[in-house]
């Protein structure tokens, strides 16, 4: 290595920074460069271990060399994601290791919780034929699933998998890393017993550097409160459960805070607010329980900025909106990932102080009234930066128009769903100027005409057979393309078109008329491609932009390819051509143009992979 390279790889902090920008595969390739680089880079390949997939778990368990390498580099592991097939095996190998190790630091690790018959339930068996692995002691990120699939057949010679006991095993491992953990996540967690709830409470209360906690489980109202008030004051993001039972439910499990659980001591519940908590996902619960629950939890979350709701269909929400407004003065982001009823959601939005909402996400929103949402855009016209509606079945184009013509600070705008009924009409699109000049991501559907038959401008470039409406619609198209071209900060554009409200065709089978054609008076060519001159920062172009549509192929030539090369310098991904395992679909007539594009812009990926139709 030359002196500069040698100096770089001689500074541990600089080498460690590579792990943040290179993939594990890249680090492996780098470590094979030479022996000196291998020495400093090889440990970085073990910083993040993801064994979430069954395939990866099986590969590791079936390879003695890989298990040996894992054990040798276990001090380098900072992040780990586990599934039962490997985590059950690892805890038993660790149990076996700790029972025989003579190294003082590891010998001092208490394994009482693992041995206790009512908790870990592990019994030492010297004849257990498994590889012994040392403890993970420097974790900053821990994720584990407790859901065991039929394919998760455990390693022979190990005791049968017991999810109840394994909860305690994993919580013990989390406590072992209490001084370094900042992120903890459990999925399919069963907290039906008092002891499991108390073990979770005691564990997370010891994680003084914890910033993110995610638990996927169904628990009682009292159990939720016990865990919430056990969270450390360092917490920034909390997702505690997907559902909470009613306080009066017969299945409620109330964790007794005074129980010691083999000398672990009583629960120590926090009585001060979580001043650093900025993200909270609320669990689903009965409508009658939501208001008092919100007042209890939000009353201890004064710094909250993002609130994520369950399915929102609560009929009486005045107390809910009042509680949110009073208890969360810094709230700026709302998320409804499971959707809900328009009236209730818009009532929540109306409770927001004017010019405060910055981000709104809704999925599967049920029949939104366009006037309500447009009023929201106006109330937050200078602050709204992100608006996303997904899986939408009924959505007025006036809502789309309102956002584009009202929200000055908008940076991301995405509306997806049933293309035939969530589209923006051309007339609405050009009726008013777009004020969203800061927008970076735009994903919408546009209705280019609402007739059963195609207009003449899609088939007759000579204009000889055009009607008055054809001339008007062609002019409107130009204005629409100019609106798009005026978004000079745009980086990602997914522009899909619907050719007819009567029988919407897939976006891959339709095209925007004249979008990829340059006007030329000498040849009589008509087109609007030059309207996109302002998109110099565009990196991704998707949607109805295929060059293999017959109408597009008839008008595209070398001039258009050169224009794309010269005027879209930042473009890296574009779905100009569909491709399956047999090659590019329908691209033979323009293959010479694609070769020119590929030669001049080798970094541009213009093929979109699709599955072959059966």
Give me some keywords for this one.
19-stranded mixed beta sheet; 15% strand; LRR_dom_sf; F-box domain-containing protein
Walkthrough of the structure:
The chain has a 19-stranded mixed β-sheet that branches. The chain is of the alpha/beta class and 614 residues long. The protein has 22 helices and 23 strands. The model has no long low-confidence stretch (mean pLDDT 86). Helix content is 34%, strand content 15%. It comes from Linnemannia hyalina. This is F-box domain-containing protein. InterPro entries: LRR_dom_sf.
Please provide a brief summary of the model:
With 614 residues, the chain is α/β, with parallel strands linked by helices. It is built from 22 helices and 23 strands.
Strand and helix layout:
Elements: H1 3-9, H2 12-21, H3 24-31, H4 35-41, E1 48-50, H5 54-61, H6 64-72, E2 79-82, H7 84-100, H8 104-107, H9 112-115, E3 141-145, H10 163-176, E4 183-187, H11 194-205, E5 212-215, E6 218-219, H12 221-228, E7 237-239, E8 243-244, E9 279-281, H13 287-298, E10 306-308, H14 318-327, E11 333-336, E12 340-341, H15 342-350, E13 359-363, E14 365-366, H16 370-379, E15 386-392, H17 397-406, E16 412-417, E17 424-425, H18 426-431, E18 441-447, H19 468-485, E19 492-498, E20 540-543, H20 550-555, H21 558-567, E21 573-580, E22 583-584, H22 591-600, E23 605-609
Parallel strand pairs: 1-2, 2-3, 3-4, 4-5, 5-7, 6-8, 7-9, 9-10, 10-11, 11-13, 12-14, 13-15, 15-16, 16-18, 17-18, 18-19, 19-20, 20-21, 21-23
Antiparallel strand pairs: 21-22
Helix pairs in contact: 3-4, 10-11, 11-12, 13-14, 16-17, 21-22
């Amino acid at each position: 290595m030359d002196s500069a390279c040698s100096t770089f790889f001689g500074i541990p902090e600089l080498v460690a920074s590579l792990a943040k920008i290179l993939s594990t595969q890249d680090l492996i390739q780098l470590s094979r460069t030479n022996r000196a680089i291998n020495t400093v880079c090889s440990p970085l390949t073990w910083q993040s271990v993801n064994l979430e997939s069954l395939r990866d778990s099986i590969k590791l368990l079936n390879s003695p060399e890989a298990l040996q390498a894992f054990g040798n580099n276990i001090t380098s592991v900072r992040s780990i994601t586990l599934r039962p097939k490997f985590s059950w095996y690892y805890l038993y190998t660790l149990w076996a290791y700790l029972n025989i190790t003579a190294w003082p630091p590891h010998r001092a690790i208490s394994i009482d919780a693992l041995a206790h018959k009512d908790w870990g339930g592990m019994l030492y068996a010297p004849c257990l034929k498994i590889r012994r692995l040392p403890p993970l002691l420097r974790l900053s990120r821990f994720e584990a699933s407790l859901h065991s699939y039929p394919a998760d057949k455990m390693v022979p010679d190990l005791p049968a998998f017991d999810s109840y006991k394994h909860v305690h095993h994993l919580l013990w491992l989390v406590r072992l890393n209490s001084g370094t953990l900042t992120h903890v996540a459990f999925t399919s967690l069963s907290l039906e017993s008092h002891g499991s709830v108390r073990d979770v409470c005691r564990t997370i209360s010891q994680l003084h550097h914890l910033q993110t906690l995610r638990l996927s489980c169904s628990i009682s109202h009292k159990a939720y409160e016990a865990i919430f008030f056990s969270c450390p004051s360092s917490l920034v993001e909390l997702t505690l459960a997907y559902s909470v039972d009613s306080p009066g439910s017969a299945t409620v499990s109330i964790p007794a805070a005074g129980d010691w659980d083999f000398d672990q001591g009583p629960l120590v519940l926090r009585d001060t607010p979580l001043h650093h908590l900025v993200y909270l996902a609320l669990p689903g619960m009965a409508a009658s329980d939501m208001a008092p629950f919100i007042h209890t939890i939000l009353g201890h979350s004064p710094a909250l900025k993002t609130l994520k709701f369950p399915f929102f269909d609560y009929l009486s929400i005045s107390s809910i909106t009042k509680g949110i407004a009073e208890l969360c003065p810094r709230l700026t982001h709302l998320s409804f990932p499971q959707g809900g009823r328009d009236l209730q959601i818009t009532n929540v939005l109306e409770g927001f102080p004017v010019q405060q909402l910055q981000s709104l996400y809704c999925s599967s929103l049920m029949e939104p009234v366009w006037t309500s949402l447009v009023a929201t855009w106006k109330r937050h016209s200078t602050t709204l930066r992100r608006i996303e509606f997904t899986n939408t079945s009924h959505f007025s184009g006036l809502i789309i128009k309102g956002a584009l013509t009202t929200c000055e600070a908008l940076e991301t705008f995405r509306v997806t769903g049933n293309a035939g009924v969530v589209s923006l009409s051309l007339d609405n699109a050009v009726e008013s100027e777009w004020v969203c000049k800061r927008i970076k991501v735009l994903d919408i559907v546009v209705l280019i005409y609402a007739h059963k038959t195609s207009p003449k401008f899609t088939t007759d470039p000579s204009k000889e057979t055009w009607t008055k409406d054809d001339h008007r619609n062609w002019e409107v198209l130009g204005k629409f393309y100019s609106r798009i071209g005026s978004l000079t900060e745009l980086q990602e554009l997914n522009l899909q078109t619907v050719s007819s409200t009567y029988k919407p065709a897939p976006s891959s089978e339709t095209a925007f008329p004249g979008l990829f054609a340059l006007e030329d008076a000498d040849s009589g060519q008509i087109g609007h491609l030059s309207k996109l001159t302002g998109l110099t920062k565009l990196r991704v172009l998707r949607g109805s932009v295929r060059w293999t549509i017959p109408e597009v192929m008839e008008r595209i030539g070398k001039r258009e390819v050169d224009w794309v090369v010269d005027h879209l310098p930042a473009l890296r991904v574009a779905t100009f051509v569909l491709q399956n395992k047999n090659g590019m679909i329908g691209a033979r007539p323009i293959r010479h143009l694609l070769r020119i594009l590929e030669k001049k812009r080798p970094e541009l990926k213009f093929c979109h992979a699709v599955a072959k139709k059966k």
